[in-house]
Automatic annotation (TrEMBL):
It comes from the Bacteria. Its EC number is 3.4.11.4. This is Peptidase T. Keywords: Aminopeptidase, Hydrolase, Protease. It comes from Meishania litoralis.
Length: 408
């Protein structure tokens, strides 16, 4: 247990926050520090063909140890942390034999991790938790995934009696700003399929995510003295309001869950002469997703008809539900499920209400479901991870390798 704790903390204490405003890859120079360390560590534990490219993508190979032809599989995680919360001077705390009560993260600022708010904590009574000191995020998303993959590879190297095919490992920068997959060289990686180890709670297994699009609506107005404006003024603010009214009220993030899609207006800015709306569309169902996009187009058209071409709509697809790429090769989900069950983990299969790097990779030709890394409350000071969940993730990774070899 101490080994994986030390490994994880070694990563967590290196600041790797990514930056959405930067155009470079990695988006922040500081991500190189952990990237270099990881490349060295992969060499040290005995991985082959360890490479780190100009964009800090790390790849490595564990050669197969059986003669028969076995599919090559991969495990992927990201080493950047979210720009939403500080990752500077992360100072993890270890809570042994958690008693199910409040954990005071920071007495001075009265920051308490409590099962009153975070009921999931009660699953982990008696376990060892790693928490923050209340001033930063922890970075279990997704340095836990990295620690688990490295530990699993080390285990396979030390236990050559476990038969497996060729295994690929990939660590990426900039996942948190949606660019983890952008420069991922799927061909160089050379796996038939892979798993991102980037889920939350123990047991999570995900192969469905949203279809996603973003829209920007720019509205021109016509300013006229308000006292003499009848039939002359076009108020861009009013048009923005009309546009929003055309969207179904109930289909917003705060009113939907599970497989329900939504429109989400997240930015509005306006004067009489000029207004802008920005929104996103999310839906698991591809037809519904297309219907939502058409609704925006129709709304823009009908307002333009009514008011005379004041509105321009820019619509951009962002990512798609990986389900359509995973379903034709569904055994890759079955293997992960069987691996969890074999090591005593109950699979929790549910659609992701977001995207993953795996969804982009799936559409780049590398089908890529997501499995748990074990942490909770990502992207903030209440982030924590039970060490027992990390150890189970290691077992699941090892078992996936084993089952892939035995099933062929
Ligand atoms: Zn993540």
């Amino acid at each position: 247990m101490q080994h994986i704790i030390d490994r994880f903390i070694g990563y967590a204490t290196i600041d790797t926050q990514s930056d959405p405003t930067s155009d470079s890859t990695p988006s922040t120079e500081k991500q190189w520090v952990l990237a270099q360390k990881l490349a060295e560590e992969l060499q040290e534990i005995g991985m082959k063909n360890v490479s780190i490219d100009d964009n800090a993508y790390i790849m490595a190979t564990l050669p197969g140890n059986v003669d028969k032809k076995i599919p090559t599989i991969g495990f992927i995680s990201h080493f950047d942390t979210s720009p939403d919360f500080s990752g500077t001077n992360v100072n993890p705390r270890i809570i042994e034999n958690y008693d199910g009560g409040d954990i005071v993260l920071n007495a001075a600022d009265n920051i308490v991790l409590s099962p009153d708010y975070f009921e999931d904590l009660l699953f982990y009574k008696g376990q060892t938790l790693i928490t923050t000191d209340g001033t930063t995020l922890l970075g279990a998303d997704d340095k836990a995934g990295i620690a688990e993959i490295v530990t699993a590879m080390e285990y396979l190297i030390q236990h050559p009696e476990i038969e497996h095919g060729e295994i690929k490992v990939g660590f990426t920068p900039d996942e948190e700003i949606g660019r983890g997959a952008h420069r991922f060289d799927v061909e160089k990686f050379g796996a038939d399929w892979a798993y991102t180890v980037d889920g939350s709670q123990i047991g999570e297994l995900e192969y469905e995510n949203f279809n996603a699009a973003s829209a920007k609506i720019v509205i021109k107005g016509k300013s006229v003295h308000p006292g003499y404006a009848k039939n002359k003024m076009i108020n861009a603010i009013s048009l923005a309001h009309e546009f929003m009214k055309a969207l179904p009220h109930e289909e917003t993030p705060q009113n939907t869950s599970k497989r329900e899609g939504f429109f989400h207006v997240h930015h509005i800015q306006g004067e009489i002469e000029h207004a802008e709306l920005e929104l996103i569309i999310r839906d698991h169902d591809r037809n519904q997703f297309e219907r939502r996009k058409r609704l925006l187009q129709k709304t823009a058209e009908s307002l333009n008809e009514k008011h005379g071409k004041q509105i321009t709509l820019e619509l951009k697809d962002q990512y798609y539900n990986m389900r359509e790429k995973v379903e034709p090769v569904f055994h890759i989900v079955e293997i992960a499920k069987a691996a969890m069950e074999a090591v005593g983990v109950t699979p929790i299969i549910k659609p992701i209400r977001g995207g993953t790097d795996g969804s982009q990779l799936s559409f780049m030709g590398l089908p890529c479901p997501n499995i748990f890394a074990g942490g909770h409350n990502f992207h903030g000071k209440y982030e924590y991870i039970p060490v027992e969940s990390m150890l189970k993730a290691v077992e699941v990774i090892v078992k996936i390798c084993e089952l892939t070899a035995s099933k062929e």
